[in-house]
Input
Amino acid sequence: MDAPEQETESVLTVDDVNAAVHVYTRHFGYLVEMIGPADAPVEAVLRRGDRLIRLESNQQGPDRPLNQPGSGETHSNPIISRGGDNAAWTAGRAGMEYRDLVPGRLDGALIASQIRIPVGGDVEDYIHYHKLQFQLIYCLAGAIKLVYEDQGESFWMRPGDAVLQPPEIRHRVLEAEPGSEVIEVAAPSGHETWADNEIHLPTGRLIPSRKFGGQSFARRNSADGTPVYGIFGGFEAMDLGISAASGGAASVFQLRSTEDNANFGSAGVNQRHTFYYVLNGRLKGEFNGSGEHSLTAGDSIMIPPKTNYNLVANANVSILCVMT
Output
């Protein structure tokens, strides 16, 4: 009996992992096995038969190995990220562009990104999964067609829709309208993305109760008219149904001010990191007595636990709120 062939692995150091992945998959027939982080890859594993290539960036990468969560204690002050024409975008996985909304990433504990797909049509994605603890996708603009393991047929995400992607659920981005955008919040920041070249999606099954890493898939369709959950000061809050599905890993709300000078905040007793992204309108915030900051559509702010803050807005300002 012949001995089984042994896998061989080559390690290559490259300037641009994304560009190298494109060359090896497009021109040499390799398939992606792993890439990470998705927003600015510094490492990838490619396969062709029994041959593996590990690509490693020679640029400065994350401060910790992939999939290793940080303490989240590096930042004691709010982190404001400004949108607009001067926002910095970088090339990420599968032809998508990323904007980092939490520079420093809370010592590796969490990442929040704005992701856009500039070109419409089919997306150069593959069936994959993420090794992480929590991942939320919220659609800002356009429309994106997705398919998930054991969650029925593919569907389109549109503005106001949200999805909880539980750990290691297989999924794929199929199509997108030009200029589609989402907000992604995930932990830890430096997680791995693995391809699954064996499974086929859709699986032909609909199992809403299936658990992935102790969490359930959850989809909030804005067309369903989710009822108001409660009131935060002068804001109404729509619960997007993430808390129960994630096992309490995060709570997600869409807030809308119902009156001029609507305000809410915390007297420093909040125990979670709270991420706000301004969907439309303008508001003002004061944090730990450091003075007033103006925020407008496209701006975001990450507020650490035990921060004393207050937000004030005129009527009909909308904000995405993620408490992790």
